[in-house]
Amino acid sequence: MFGPTGVGKTEVALALAQRLRARGERPVAVSADALQVYRGLEILTGVPDAAQRAVLEHRLVAFLPVSERFSVAEYAALAHAEIDGLLAEGATPIVVGGTGLYLRAALAELELRPPPPAGVRERWQAELDARGPQALHAELAGKAPWAAERIEPRDRHRIVRALELHDQGALVPATTPSQLWTRETRHPTRLVGLIRDREELYARIEARVDAMVAAGVVAEVQRAHAAGASDTARAALGFEQLRSGDVDAMKRRTRNYARRQLTWMRKLPDVEAIDMTSQEPEHVAALIDSAPA
User: Which positions ≥6 away from 8 have C-beta within 8 Å?
Assistant: First the structure.
């Protein structure tokens, strides 16, 4: 199950789990979110709370110290082990997430690029902080113009990653169709994408951020910063904005991210899109449950 931030994925997963459990199945959610892995950023990353996790067990959330780095390759190995183990036990995995790459990594066998050697990311991160993303984007354009054309000049994370791969000799033009969009999955899979009317989604995002602030997210981010949050933990949506107390900037960034998530979803092969506009989670869960697999 995939969808943008604030669309209501958790609520639908909980409602679907109750339907599955009522007929004797054992549903377990497997998170496909790049940042929900961090312990100490539960409010910021939207990890289901204790009451929600009592209704539906969630795997791969809040298990990693905030000071640790984490990669999609590490996630893929953990997600495959969780999904395979659940299927072997007769359980029903519900993969839930808003990080498109992690969703694909959970469902398919991807040839993932290597993580950078120790110190490489830190060096480029320092360059980024000193010179800014546009200067590094220009440097990338000089080294690999074809790669720079595919990255926005303000996309800090992708610029640094491209420069890391260039240093390793692993940044090469694709000569075959991207494996990322393969229809082949490791197990028979139904892929549901949740969408909402744009105005309704943005209103939910506003309310979500306000609820995070009321729940203490600013203090949570400050604690994570003081604990030496890694560069991958700091990539959490709104981390830097909340460190400076700029809630409005976090809301803007979240809206922009939701747009990118919707663009990603349109590329997913065989996705079944369900419009949640003005719909209750129980109704959407019933639609999913009643549709042919």
Answer: 194, 196, 204, 276, 281, 284
Band (281; pLDDT cuts 50, 70, 90)? very high
9-109+184-290: CATH topology: Rossmann fold (3.40.50)
Mean pLDDT of 109-122: 76
Mean pLDDT, range 4-25, rounded to an integer:
97
How far separated are the first and last CA of the chain, in Å rounded? Answer: 14
Count CB atoms within 10 A of the CB of residue 224.
Answer: 24
Q: Tell which wins on pLDDT, 231 or 85.
A: 85
Beta bridge partners of 59: 30
Cα 190 to Cα 74: distance, rounded to the nearest angstrom: 24
Coil vs helix vs strand at 58: strand
Q: Render pLDDT for 121-166 as a digit per residue (tens, 0 to 9).
A: 888 989 998 999 999 999 999 999 988 998 989 888 889 889 988 8
Question: Domains of the chain: which residue ranges?
Answer: 9-109+184-290, 120-168
Alpha-carbon gap, residue 90 to 109, rounded angstroms = 22
| φ and ψ at residue 94, rounded to 5 degrees | -115, 105
With tokens 């042919």, the residue in question is 292
Phi, psi torsion values for 21, nearest 5 degrees: -65, -35
Residue ranges of alpha helices (H) inside the chain are 9-22, 42-45, 50-55, 72-88, 100-107, 120-131, 133-143, 145-148, 156-168, 198-214, 217-226, 239-243, 247-267, 281-290
